Amino acid sequence: MDDELIALAERHGVATHYEDAGQRRVDVDADVVVAVLAQLDVDASTPGAVRRALAAPRPEPRTVVLREGDVLDGPGVAALEDGGSVALPAALPPGYHRLGDRTVIVAPRRLPPPPRTWGLMLQLYAMRSDESWGMGDFGDLATTARRAADDLGAGVLLVNPVQAISPTTPVERSPYSPASRRFANPLYLRVADVPAYRDADAATRAAVDALRPDNDTELIDYDAVWLAKKAALELLWTRVEHVEPTGELRDFARFCALAEVHGPDWRAWPEQQRDPATATADPDRVAFHAWLQHLCEQQLAAARRAAGAMAVGIVHDLPVGVHPGGADTWAVRDAFAPDVRVGAPPDAFSRQGQDWGLPPWRPDRLAEQGYEPFRAVIRNVLAHADGIRVDHVAGLWRLWWIPPGESPARGTYVRYDDEAMLAVLTLEAHRAGAVVVGEDLGTVEPKVTEALHEHGMLSSAVLWFQRDYERPGHPLIPPAEWTGSAMASISTHDLPTAAGFLAAEHVRVRAELGQFEGDVDGEYHAAGRERAELVALLEQEGLAVDDLVTAFHALLAKAPSSLLLTSPQDALGEIRQPNLPGTVDEYPNWRIPLPVRLSEFFTDARVRAVAAALAAGRGR
């Protein structure tokens, strides 16, 4: 690759080489760099085009980032967010201000430390109760928050993403591919908690109740749940005063109304409907979908109130992106690189790389817009939350872009302004009084974790991965040596449960699906060795090994990490993990309900043993 192309790529934050999972340098092919630059509207197709692009004047930064107490140089007058103004030079208060055509973001230097507590990480859809309709709902979230605090002494609940889907069938099951990250998923509404249901006459309530789907299916049937709830809510909608929505809610509701007619992906709609400026939607359906969002807000707020006795409360999970044909890319498309897919480069787990099928933000457009699209996402998630977990938090620094027509291996990293992204996250969390957790697992640059801690945010620690990778054999690190600035757990939704790990269920399933290139016996041997290493660590720590699931939690409780989390799946000894990466329909991802009803969960002896182990650790 010639020096001029390298210089142009550097100017626009496109990597020409990177370090792989084995700390080896990998050079990116020149044509991949050219293709990614094209997605940023930079022509690098010929040497002459590269030279012209390099010669073009560089625009002034449209966003200025400061920390609280920093002085913004003058001369000039800054227009403050609250409507006031300040002559420069001056230190501005935290907020989003204007200096001419530039946005000035002033964020607190760091967030206050969160309380030390323990809690549950929920796959909410799996928490079925006597009141829910075929899957867990916002009412179950409220019940879990209240009873986890009162009965078990828990102080935090981490919830899988509950962001909005397209209101069509088949329903998108993955919570990590929402249509919008700015709105909530009405699939989780509890119909009986809707005010119109409580106010309805007996005949209407009976008609609604008759729509309730089977609550005891072996796997969760999302389509049946959504069709039943939509029909029930439409019955109640006839009894509600219709209000025309405005602003971003109107745009989202219009998308939903159009998706009902034309399908979930706006890229396949008739040309007129693809553009919000020319699209036309049924006003009644627009108002209906806006009403559903108001109901979601009410029920999410009720769940948060139910968590009032918790030291932290409810932490919501933020997916790394949105569906390429969903509501967010329809309404705020200028902020996205629509033809790019986000993923990951090849590594030991995925030798061909990963393609997550999600369009990334354009870093240049975010800066031009004062990061408003990102601000809206964080602000809306935190509207009814006590904290936020940012999935793949390294994406605030860089994302792996796969250009059109290429395989995941033929991509490269594109850099973001991490100072601006962290400033938005810090400021919004400060305003909401929320804790922030960054999911920094896997191949992540050390500066990511360091910056999280510098800003008062928590990183992630998972028992399976807590090893000293600088020493031969990568020995396990005793929990007492883990960082305190972390949310620690035994596993995650993408990894084996505690019981599944002990039974090598993850090896059996992957072997059955043909996911291993090498010898399956070798995989079983490796799993057995890891199991033996963990048992040895338990014994080294003086813990009884007669009940290994409880023992793992007692081991976790020795960590100084601010938050200790277990999942209901881990506590109950469920061997099936919620999601198996690399599969779609080959494995029942996101469809496995808990083996017990919610009412039975809090009295289960296994759950109480795990809760006692974690609570004992917080008492130290």
Automatic annotation (TrEMBL):
Enzyme Commission (EC) number: 2.4.1.25
Name of one Pfam family that matches: Glyco_hydro_77
InterPro entries on file: GH (IPR017853), Glyco_hydro_77 (IPR003385)
Keyword check for Transferase: yes
Recorded superkingdom: Bacteria
Reactions listed under catalytic activity: Transfers a segment of a (1->4)-alpha-D-glucan to a new position in an acceptor, which may be glucose or a (1->4)-alpha-D-glucan
GO biological process: carbohydrate metabolic process
Protein name: 4-alpha-glucanotransferase
